[in-house]
Amino acid sequence: MSAPEVSGPIPYWRLSGFYFFYFALLGGLYPYWPLYLRGLGFAPEQIGALLAIPLITKVIAPNLWSWLGDWSGRRLTIIRLGSLLAFLCFLGIFAGDSLPWLVLVLSGYSFFWNAVLPQHEVITLGFLGAQPERYSRIRLWGSIGFIAAVVGVGFCFETWGIGWFPVAGSLLLATILLSSLMIPRPTAGARERHWQPLHAAARQPAVLAFLAAGLLLQVAHGAYYSFISIHLEALGYSRSAIGVLWSVGVVAEIL
Fold it and tell me: Quick check: 237 pLDDT over 90?
């Protein structure tokens, strides 16, 4: 997926704002999904299966949507459409809480939600052009959004209960949709194609090492993401404390 350079000033706050709300969703949902599902009465193996769905769609959706973005050049449209459809699919959580229904909700929501970040990355790098070193200052706001949401939502759930999880998720997805409308449309380089055969890229040692590192990272974090919040609550930690503990790693990432 190419990142054509875009002329004009860098829309720092609008690009940063999307990162903020995108990763706020991660902070507001993923630490508390297991607690919500356990509250619905699901067994650990069912919780693990449900939380694997976003990772499964993450294998498929970004590749499909990235190909479409490269082919059409309409990356901003993909971001906005993906944000809208992810929001609409998530609203299905209000319609039922059976295992088959939540499989459908998670599959639909995560398929479209996983589409938007790679497209935003391309647009951001296009605006940065010859100043890629400024990327970290923009991406930083994603980490800040995660911290703000994981701590803030934790305090909310401690006060009002985990039953408000669907409301929190819907509001956070709505903020992603609204922030996507603020991203400026690139004015140049809408379409660039530099194709390389997949088998040729996959044989490169750097690519193989990168893929192996990504695989090991996901394996290491699978159980952590799915069950650490349940484990901490079983040890007597409050939901606000769980949120604070989740934020520690991201604070270290910033520092």
Answer: yes
pTM of the model: 0.88
CB 118 within 8 A of CB 65: yes
Q: Return the pLDDT at 28.
A: 94
Rounded-to-integer distance, Cα 173 and Cα 116, Å: 12
d(CA 170, CA 89): 10
CB 153 within 8 A of CB 28: yes
Predicted confidence (pLDDT) per residue in 47-56, tens digit: 999 999 998 8
- Average of per-residue pLDDT values in the chain: 88
Taking only the tens place, the pLDDT of each residue in 181-204 is 999 887 654 445 556 676 777 778
d(CA 65, CA 63): 6
Backbone CA torsion sign across 66, 209, 58, 161:
negative
Domain 12-187+198-254 = CATH 3.40.50.720: no
| Close Cβ partners of 55 (under 8 Å, ≥ 6 residues apart) | 218, 222
Q: What is the DSSP string of 65-128?
A: HHHHHHHH--HHHHHHHHHHHHHHHHGGGGT--SHHHHHHHHHHHHHHHHHHHHHHHHHHHHHH
Instruction: Identify the three-state secondary structure at position 38.
Output: helix
Single out the residue of 12, 14, 69, 10 nearest to residue 183, CA to CA.
14
Calpha distance 180→144 (Å, rounded): 18
- Both tokens of 104, joined, read 């459908």
**Helix or strand run (H / E) with residue 57:** helix 44-72
User: Given pLDDT bands bounded at 50, 70 and 90, which one contains residue 251?
Assistant: confident
